[in-house]
Amino acid sequence: MPIDRPAPGRPHVTAAVLAGGVGARMGGPRPKQLLPLAGRTILERSVAAFCAAPQVDEVVVVMVPDLVAEAEKIVAEGGHGKVSRIVPGGASRSDSSRAALRAVAHRGGGDLVLLHDAARPLVSGRIIASCVAALAEAGAVGVAVPSSDTVVEVAADTRGHEVIRSVPDRAVLRRMQTPQGFRLDVIRRAHERALADPGFVATDDCGVVLRYLPEEPVRIIPGEEGNIKVTHPGDVAVAEVLLRTLEEER
Ligand SMILES: Nc1ccn([C@@H]2O[C@H](COP(=O)(O)OP(=O)(O)OP(=O)(O)O)[C@@H](O)[C@H]2O)c(=O)n1
Ligand SMILES: C[C@](O)(CO)[C@H](O)COP(=O)(O)O
Question: What is the pLDDT of residue 1?
Fold first, then answer.
């Protein structure tokens, strides 16, 4: 498939759509990224968002290994010409991020990668553009929104009841979203170091950089409440309402 070339002097930008999860919390016979959302699968909507972004040169899809052929069909039928590769994911989200990094192993360390949850199909062009723009200065960029709820840390008491242990200052708390963008040399080094740690666990890629490359600041840019992660039953209905609202606004 033809891949756009970046303008001379600017780094090549690959978006990796991570769709390697099984959707245990959603339940159902098939992973949630294959559920329809107003007529198109959640996976296709995520892929389409990055294909439509002028800042993105190429899209890689990381899919549940048994469903790679299905993802190929979705991409081919949708005519998403920026998709260059569809590769099998791993057992954890971090394994799937590493599969994406392997798929761009031929790219230079100064090129960029945006790692995105396929389960966030409502990501906006504004978020993608801001993420790429911030990478002109930062090696790692996360998208996040403030918390409108009070967030507490909990622990079990002596009888096993959950009790509050602390109430962190809400003003400094953010809820992380995706995409999370990186210069390739930064995210490669962070994941290499993480691989060497037998106690490694991470729920996102910015966390991998923070932990294993503490000298690299992770810049935060504003996300959007509408950039939800379809996680639990009921979230598809919420996403459909949000999608309708967004389409009416355009
Ligand atoms: N081994 C994995 C696990 C997750 N993901 C992707 O990472 C994103 C965020 O993960 P999550 O919402 O947790 O998806 P699942 O892992 O599928 O859900 P669950 O944890 O409920 O099983 C999703 O797009 C998911 O497909 C992935 O590519 N590979
Ligand atoms: C990356 C992420 O979407 C940021 O909020 C989130 O950490 C993914 O977590 P999950 O447990 O894989 O849903």
Answer: 41
For 203-245, the pLDDT digits (tens) are 999 999 999 999 999 999 999 999 999 999 999 999 999 999 9
CB-based pocket (< 6 A), ligand 2: 93, 117, 176-178, 203-204, 229, 231
Distance CA 217, CA 210 (A): 8
Alpha-carbon distance 143 to 147, whole Å?
A: 13
- In this prediction the ipTM stands at 0.98
Q: How far apart are CA 192 and CA 67, in angstroms?
A: 27
CA of 141 to the centre of ligand 1 (A): 20
Residue 157 Cα to ligand 1 middle (Å): 31
Residue with CA closest to ligand 1 atom 28: 20
Pocket test for ligand 2, best of 120, 173, 204 (most atoms within 8 A of CB): 204
Full set of structural domains in the chain with CATH: 13-142+173-244 (3.90.550.10)
The mean pLDDT of 85-89, rounded to a whole number, is: 98
Q: Bridge-partner residues for 114, per DSSP?
A: 15, 181
Nearest CA owner, ligand 1 atom 9: 117
